Amino acid sequence: MLVKLMRLTEHPILNFQEKRGRKITIYFEGQPIEAYEGETIVMALHAAGIRVLGYSVHKHRPRGLFCAIGKCASCLMTVNGIPNVRTCITLVEDGMKIERQKDKPKLPPTVKPPKFKEAKKVSGDIVIIGGGPAGLMAAINAADAGAKVILLDENPMLGGQLVKQTHKFFGKREQFAGVRGVKIAEILEEEVRKRENIEIFLETSAIMLLQDGDEKLVVGVRKNKELIEFRGKAVIVATGAMEKMIPFEGNDLPGVYGAGAIQTLMNTYGVKPGDRVLIVGAGNVGLILAYQLIQAGVDVKAIVEAMPKIGGYFVHAAKIRRLGVPILTRHTILRAEGKEKVERAVVAQIDEKWRSIPGTEKVFDVDVIALAVGLRPSIELLHQVGCQIKYVPELGGHVVIRDSRMETTIKGIFVAGDSAGIEEATTAMLEGKIAGIAAALEIGTASSEWFKEIEKAQKELDEFRAGPFGRKVLEGIKKVVVE
Amino acid sequence: MIKLNIDLEKVNPEEVFICGCDVTLKDILDLIDQGITDIQLIKRLTHVGMGFCQGRYCIDTVAQVIAWKTEKDLKEIKLPDARMPVRPVKMKVMANEK
Amino acid sequence: MRSEIVIIGGGIIGVTLAHELAKRGEQVTVLEKKYIGSGSTFRCGTGIRQQFTDEANIKVMKRSVELWKKYSEEFGFPFKQTGYLFLLYDDEEVREFKRNIKLQNKFGVPTRLITPEEAKEIVPILDISEVVAASWNPTDGKADPFFATTAFAREAEKLGAKIFEYTEAKDIIVENGEIRGVKTNKGIIKTEIVINAANAWAKLINAMAKIPIKIPIEPYKHQGVITQPLKGGEINPMIISLKYNDAYLTQTEHGGIIGGVGVEYGPTYDLTPTYEFLREVSKAFTKIIPVLGELLILRTWAGFYAKTPDSNPAIGRIEEINEFYIAAGFSGHGFMMAPAVAEMLADLITRGKTELPIEWYDPYRFERGELRETALQMG
Ligand SMILES: Cc1cc2nc3c(=O)[nH]c(=O)nc-3n(C[C@H](O)[C@H](O)[C@H](O)COP(=O)(O)OP(=O)(O)OC[C@H]3O[C@@H](n4cnc5c(N)ncnc54)[C@H](O)[C@@H]3O)c2cc1C
Ligand SMILES: Cc1cc2nc3c(=O)[nH]c(=O)nc-3n(C[C@H](O)[C@H](O)[C@H](O)COP(=O)(O)OP(=O)(O)OC[C@H]3O[C@@H](n4cnc5c(N)ncnc54)[C@H](O)[C@@H]3O)c2cc1C
Ligand code: FES
Ligand code: FES
Asked: Fewest Cβ atoms closer than 10 Å to its Cβ: which of A31, A371, C290, C376?
């Protein structure tokens, strides 16, 4: 048995000993590894110190985790003989056999001719894609407004990004200020599960969104093997965001992780991402990540930030500095070095023209490089179905045109949360609420009383965005909202 | 003009990976130098964004590199169409009766 | 600007024609509204076959394959004679194919009827439990549309042809039945000769020249699929199954399985992929080769079959407008025919005649109500 190298046993906020499921054994290239029910394959491998998940097809370069939410495809492995399984969103099972992929796969010997089944069909009034704060609030409100709701998420648990936020949230009391993100996720999940008119499908990816006669059709795949057709009169897309990647030498080495992936490892599954970390990006995500890493007992060597100023909240930055982590502004990463995984990071200072200044290079001995360089809305379903899109840098990239009730340019298709524009959980929840009610109103299950609730939520959004950080978002929203 | 968060002049573009399917920054820059800046064509010539993620992850970086190199605004760079399925799906899962 | 000949449309037909005309010393300009190949050409299934059911198409395709071979060697793009394998499932189908094979053999195409076991030797992963025979021609093949099209374009330019991308023909200036020039979004090009090679958009070009006869060419949406790459050599030939929804499939150089089925929509200029196609193509492919079920579908796309009522193209001169030619309406087989089409139309333009059976594609046949036997169409 490989020893458990990277499991967190002590954590000031989270208690993993209690949370972990039954202990089981999985096999990595024949070698037994201890794992716990309820965790994903990648987490179990990482806990055993296995970071190289496979090799690229052409140049055979090592591949490791990157996004941890099923979106980047860098974690594909062969599981029980089935190639190309996204191991970051697939749960371990006792006795599972896991292999690295090195080459283009060869086909197994001939199998029996198929028997075609009818796809499973599930119908409701409103189909909600994504179970993060936006989707959960949309579900709760649409259900209360009389709609039969179907909620699907490709992750094995509800909560979206919230399940990895161990810190207390800012904002107003009604929006859970002072409550930790993980706790908010628990509260919302409980509310959702309480409502009988919400049906939940986890480990279910939406792979296409279509107009089907008068209805909307969402084609989903559960656990990579079951096709399900979800039909409803309206659809709310709350698929969140994707982490941005930046180009630098060795940026594909295992150990170069998205900030979100590190949070998933550490805060959701209690697995240490590594021992020494360099963080790229000093926005709120980078700063909070630094703090969470230190809480988990990981050494944060530095945060580099290309801009001359720290992007995140001042209080977060001050706290990090007090803990002795240098924040190097006007610095960028030049390269990641290492053989099979990250062993060092080289950074340098840059001038106003983004050129590195000779002689300012610094080398950090780290085994993880965390990229916290921003998020971008996950709009692929909306783009595919034909919603009008626009590039709005204030909202994180390409977003969909919508009205103030979150309806896109296609009638009956709504958007909410980070997939409508990168912001925060608080605004995601409010947008989810608006979208949920607006969809229920449009399909006629809600009485006109509910208009007031929309107005209330819109007012709260306005208040929330009135702060200094809301200014940029408001600029962006001006560009996408049409009536 | 776009600012890439890094100094592209200083890095060895053969070691910078744009797509997890082994396409490097050099592959992209070489094409841009030949005057090819249409993402569709760059996809054809390098296979960038034609792997498992189908560009959902990596095409954004290609767009940024083009914008940076050609000194264009990102909004002028046309993204390829998003086509279904938005996640790779097994053929036997898709093969169902109506 | 002026040019002796203007070709409207930079698909495989436009560029092979430009190359052929430039080779003969003509001064030619291609107008392409987007980029070379962006119409149907880059969306095609790569297949090149001589297994047709009528004399004209067999002869033309035999010549085309000779030219594919010659030019791929000269210009260095991939063209492989990996064969076409038609799977046959009952006596009726076998009878029909025996007739076709006889005709193909008569014109020098070496197709033969083989047993299911022989078919399995060619493609070991094939499921032959329902197959009773197969029609096999090892000299059919496939080429990469991207590299082929760009190679012909490059060679044409070397010979002096001009290719203007992102240049859209907006109108054709005709005075007293004589062509004077073409209006584009970038200005006017003076010319006396225009060739309509706009395939799915051909009717719009015909309307610009106000040709007085009707040539019914309509755009129909057809789709293709590609899977994750596999080790090479799994499926070398193009496999066809008329029984399973006119399916065709093969493996690309890159390793993915590419192909399609006969799910058709139209006439339409819409190009959104459909769920129905994905479902039907998956059913057909897994019936033909069950292990394909294990592969991930990476992408689907749609393109146009520009169809005439008999699925044969319209190729020739329009007498009433001096000088206006057309080569359009290629249904699902315009890529494979291109080199021979270029040759016969260039013959007609530069010599007034050709050895290839161009009459079969007479653009006046619709007006006269003389439809041809429907060309064998895949997908
Ligand atoms: C480090 C960090 C710190 C943060 N701190 C704060 C804070 O202090 N305060 C605050 O307000 N906000 C904070 N946020 C932001 C907040 O977490 C997000 O804005 C919020 O989670 C967005 O919610 P959402 O519902 O739009 O998306 P998400 O929470 O991302 O949820 C989207 C869900 O959709 C699912 N999904 C996506 N595509 C598909 C598909 N095709 N099929 C099925 N399911 C799909 C995903 O699996 C996911 O569960 C922080 C974020 C980070 C990364
Ligand atoms: C899914 C699919 C699979 C196929 N498989 C095969 C196969 O296996 N084998 C085979 O042989 N064929 C196949 N085909 C058919 C083949 O793609 C076409 O017959 C062939 O590409 C036609 O070439 P073309 O040059 O005539 O047309 P196109 O490639 O469509 O070129 C016409 C060009 O004209 C341009 N244009 C239009 N209007 C204007 C204007 N006003 N000004 C300037 N330019 C203009 C367009 O932009 C376009 O690029 C397939 C087609 C599809 C859709
Ligand atoms: S898809 Fe698993 S790490 Fe990104
Ligand atoms: S990483 Fe290759 S397709 Fe995106």
From this structure: A31
